[in-house]
Amino acid sequence: MSNDWLQEWSQSKIDLASRLSSGECGGSYAEAVIIICNVLSAISADIWPGRNIDKKRFVELLFKYSNSMESCETISVPLLIDTFRECGNIKLANKLKMELLPFSDTRVITGNDSDKTIGDLKTDYPEIEITVLKRHSYSCILYEDIRSGYAHEYQPGGRADSWPMSSDRDNCLVSYTNRLTNAGTVNRLIHFNVSWLVRLAGEVVGNLVKENPMPTFTRYTSWWLEAT
């Protein structure tokens, strides 16, 4: 994939995704995110060729080549709390909920209401391993629950939802759907705004087009997702 046609190729796919998200040709959120995530996957595979590294290179692409690095590194606090609750660390889950998510379970929230940077969480909660925080970053969740969920099952993964809970498409990167569990607790499922994903893909492509030649790493060991 060369710089000469990367912009045209990717932009045509991103424009198609935007139109499908708006309902053209019977399209929906599913078709839009499949296309956007596959554009990002294709680019990451070209830069970091090889097998069994798909998630690491997808996340690395967003980390290295988007202008929204802080957004990609943002941690989903509701999903982090759910993880600790599900693995039996109730004390830490309750502490995080009380201090970072002091809302009624019925309240609809967005990422602006709850989510934090890795730096903030690591400073305030040093007992949480950095790799655990990174697994709850927007970039990692996007790969696991949107890219992989739709690629393999044509639906979001267990932590995500296809329905937006905010109409603020310009300033709200993510919103959360409240879901009652069989245990009587409420999980919040993340929704990624298509408008943000479109901007994110455009940033990645725009930055790569400026590089000549386009970077290719045949050996790469310093993955952001694994660094401690």
Polypeptide structure, described:
The relative contact order is 0.19. By secondary structure, the protein is mainly α. A two-stranded antiparallel ribbon has the order 1-2. 54% of the residues lie in helices and 6% in strands. The chain is built from 11 helices and 2 strands; from the N terminus they run H-H-H-H-H-H-H-H-H-H-E-E-H. A hairpin with a 5-residue loop joins strand 1 and strand 2 (186-192). It is globular. Helix 1 packs antiparallel against helix 2 (29-47) and helix 5 (77-86) packs antiparallel against helix 6. It has one domain (3-209).
SSE pattern:
HHHHHHHHHHEEH
Give the distance, in angstroms, between the N- and C-terminal Cα atoms: 32 Å
Strand order, biggest sheet? 1-2
The coarse silhouette is globular
Low-confidence stretches: none
Largest sheet: 2 strands, antiparallel
* β-strand number: 2
Helix content: 40-55%
Structural class: mainly alpha
* Strand composition percent: 5-15%
Count of domains: 1
